[in-house]
Amino acid sequence: MRTELYQIIKNKKEWQQFIRNEPIWYKKLSRNPNAIKEFEQTALKYYQKTLPDRMNKISNGVQFATMMLSMIQSMNQVD
């Protein structure tokens, strides 16, 4: 693997862990250093950090908060 790619991956802990979990990327990046963007996208999908994943997390948080709020309100109305 090229030293500049190695340094890029070394600087990001998640990328280090991802490449350890998916060792095929050693071979892919060694053969084609331009695949770093594909590597980055795959790592983002792996760690669920893509925009749709983030939106889904926010949506789930809002739904949970709404459910808790309605549950608290219903408990207050019973008293």
Q: Structural class of the secondary structure composition?
A: mainly alpha
Low-confidence stretches: none
Number of strands: 0
Series of H and E elements = HHHHH
Quote the average pLDDT.
Answer: 93
Q: How big a fraction of the residues is strand?
A: under 5%
State the distance separating the first and last CA atoms: 67 Å
Radius of gyration: 21 Å
Residues in helix, %: over 70%
Helix segment tally: 5
**Largest sheet report:** none
**Rough outline:** rod-shaped
Describe this structure as you would to a colleague:
- It is a single chain.
- The mean pLDDT is 93.
- The chain has helices spanning 3-10, 13-21, 24-31, 36-46, 51-78.
- It has five helices and no strands.
- The protein is rod-shaped.
- 81% of the residues lie in helices and 0% in strands.
- It is mainly α.
- Pfam families: YlbE.
- This is YlbE-like family protein.
- It comes from Caldifermentibacillus hisashii.
